[in-house]
Amino acid sequence: MFSSLLSIPLEFRHALLIVVGAGVTSHCTFNRLEPRALLHILILLFLPPILLSTLVLPHMSGFFSTAALTFGVYLSSLVTSIVVYRLSPRHPLAKYPGPLLCKVSKLWFTGIAMKGKQHLYYSELHQRFGDVVRIGPNELSFRNVNAIVPMMGSKGMPKGPWWDGRVPENREVRPLLALRDPEEHARRRRAWNRAFSTPALKDYEVLISARISQLVDILTTKAATQNSVDLSKWLGWLTYDIMNDVMFSGGGDSMKFEDRDDTSRLLVNAQPMALLMSHLPWISDLYLWLPGMGQGLRAFRKYAVQRASERKTRGSHHKDVFYHLIDEAGLEPTPPSSAQILSDGGLAIIAGAETTSTTLCHIIWFLLCNPTAYRRLQAEVDDQKRNTWVPASQARMPYLNAVINEALRLFPAVLSGSQRAPLIGSGGQTIGSHFVPEGTSAVVHTFSLHHDPRYFSPFPDTFIPERWLAAEEQIALEPAIFAENEIVHNTAAFIPFSVGPSNCVGRNLAYQEMRMVVCTLISKFEMRFEEGFDVNSWEEEMLDYFVVQRGRLPVVLTARPS
Ligand code: HEM
Fold first, then answer.
1. Each residue of 347-371: b (16+ CB within 10 Å) or e?
2. Which terminus of the chain, N or C, has fewer Cβ atoms within 10 Å?
3. Residues in contact with 149: Cβ distance below 8 Å, sequence separation at least 6, in sequence order
4. What is the position in ligand 1's atom list of the atom closest to the CA of 321?
5. For residues 510 and 296, which has the higher predicted lDDT (pLDDT)?
6. Which residue has a Cα nearest atom 43 of ligand 1?
7. Does ligand 1 come within 6 angstroms of the Cβ of 508?
């Protein structure tokens, strides 16, 4: 058609050359316009070869073979052009080291991430390539304390494209965590800050206490009748119930009915899909188009929105987080939309419950692997017993806080950090001596930073709660470690709750909850691993899908005399 239109009978090789040129041109278009919508990508992929096949058709015998040849030539030249550009010195991230396959395509890193061990891969890459590694064609990972503030501080970068993929249903009205526009984020964050202010936290204390008492009653019965209990399950259900109470004034009773709603399974099944769409945002369009895809994620999102809708209809007698989010006090100039409230309601369950229960499990696991630390903590708890149930006094228990921080250091609940990207229109952002150009993204890799001997020494990979104590205490308790080694303890490199305007708004609630739970369990029970439990399985089964997935934690509980 083209040739007849132009009335120029093209030679076969010239027709193919035009197809090759179209492939290269398409790459330039991809590069310039950066289409993320799947529809646009599909148009760029399929429309040019379909049109150009008319140039090739006069030289071939059948339509299908012509289409296949044209598409093959077009795609090969497009892919070759992309690969050559991504590996060329002209690429904006050319000077950064990294594995060849990471530079060529994000598919390589995503493939590794889907096995649940991305935190170890990041770590391995930093060991091989240094503090700044190119982990994708347009993505960098940093392992340096000096990158934290420039990247995540008040003058840092907003959230990156990872968050476009993670919340496909909520692209228009995103949950707070996924907001990429800093102004909108700051506006929406105000209600969250009020919900986690000191007076608000005081209101939640009684709700947390009631749930912990319920757990103790259940565990006391179980301890008398069962050999062991899986604390991984029970702590998960506990934090769900607490989060439902704090967030929605009830509505969850996972402990009572041993997870009748199957919420934990919903969440577990949802995570790989959410991670896949985060790394490859264009897949989220497929997810929207194909109702059969990502069933686990859909079911969990439905559950979370249901919880928020129920609370909206039911109302509440006390000030829960929802009270602040729907602005019942009327403090905001414009009331929040329903979509915004439902979207944020769902976020809290994931952000607040799983992170806290995973950290609680890590704490128990570390304590049971380290009997000396267990005994020291138990002594401190027993000593404080008359104040133990007062969160304000728990905040001043040095060994308790040291244990919690050391667990958060070694296994931060968000192992691989939260992606950032330069503000659109800014041109890019300088991170120390490095420049992150617009169109690329970056992350500070929390797990690598927390295990870096430049920031935590000696023995950065070992559980040593004493590193968080005062110097004289350290030497008194562990002279062999602290009197004979050079001590490095750089708390600026400790970022389990992230840093800056988008840091974890629930940080103080999480600490409060963890202190209360750990004090109670240590005070009420003697704990040991179930006979035959392979302690290494805990770490092996820990999977980094952004929200950590964890295995069993079978513990034998014996009630302590009160
Ligand atoms: C041990 C427990 C917890 C850990 C380690 C943790 C960690 C984090 C991290 C790393 C972020 C990402 C911040 C960023 O993008 O830079 C975050 C965000 C967030 N967390 Fe937590 N979190 C915990 C508990 C909680 C709790 C109990 C809540 C209560 C609802 C909560 C609510 C949130 C919210 C709403 C955000 C989004 C903040 C924003 O974008 O402004 N988190 N958390």
1. bbbbbbbbbbbbbbbbbbbbbbebe
2. C
3. 156, 499, 500
4. 30
5. 510
6. 504
7. no
Contacts of residues 249-254 at CB distance under 8 Å and 24 or more positions apart, as own/partner, are 249/311, 249/314, 249/316, 249/317, 249/318, 249/320, 249/322, 251/307, 251/310, 251/311, 251/314, 252/307
* Cβ of 189 below 6 Å from ligand 1: yes
> How much distance in Å is there from the Cα of 185 to the middle of ligand 1?
14
pLDDT (0 to 100) of residue 5: 45
Please tell me if the CB atom of residue 254 comes closer than 6 angstroms to any atom of ligand 1: no
- Its pTM stands at 0.93
Distance 214 CA to ligand 1 centre (A): 26
Report whether 504 belongs to an annotated binding site: yes
Mutate to test the pocket of ligand 1, among 181, 341, 504 (most ligand atoms within 8 A of CB): 504
Both structure tokens of 233: 């399950």
Instruction: Give me the sheet containing 554-559, strands edge to edge.
Output: 229-230, 554-559, 525-529
Q: Ligand 1 atom closest to Cα of 247?
A: 30
Q: Is the CB of 177 under 6 A from ligand 1?
A: yes
| Atom of ligand 1 lying closest to residue 412 CA | 5
Q: Is 504's C-beta closer than 6 angstroms to any atom of ligand 1?
A: yes
Hunting for tokens 């300088």 — which residue is that? Answer: 430
Question: Is the confidence at residue 264, as pLDDT, over 70?
Answer: yes
Average pLDDT, the chain: 91
Atom 19, ligand 1: residue with shortest CA distance: 504
Q: Using CA atoms, how far apart are residues 280 and 418, in angstroms rounded to an integer?
A: 15
Ligand 1 within 6 A of 175 CB? no
Alpha carbon 544 to its chain centroid, in Å, reads 8
298 vs 98: CA distance, rounded Å: 35
Identify the CA nearest to 466 among candidates 376, 366, 393.
Answer: 376
ipTM: 0.99
The one-letter amino acid code at 337 reads S
Radius of gyration of the chain (CA): 27
Cβ contact 448:440 at 8 Å: no
Pocket flag, ligand 1, residue 448 (CB < 6 Å): no
Which segments of 7-37 does DSSP mark as H helices, in order? 12-33
Which atom of ligand 1 is found nearest the CA of 418?
Answer: 15
Q: Cα–Cα distance between 96 and 134 in angstroms, integer?
A: 6
Helix (H) / strand (E) element for 543: namely: strand 543-545
Q: Given the CA of residue 414, which atom of ligand 1 is nearest to it?
A: 10
Tokens of 525: 């029970």
Strand-strand pairing, 543-545 and 547-549: antiparallel
Residue 359 Cβ contacting ligand 1 at under 6 Å:
yes
CA torsion through residues 170, 172, 174, 179, sign = positive
CA 305 – CA 55 distance, rounded (Å): 53
Asked whether the predicted pLDDT for residue 332 surpasses 50, the reply is yes
Core vs surface per residue 74-85: b (16+ CB within 10 A) or e: bbebbeebbbeb
Would you state the pLDDT for residue 170? Answer: 63
Residue 307: which region, alpha, beta or left (left: phi > 0; alpha: psi -120 to 50)? Answer: alpha
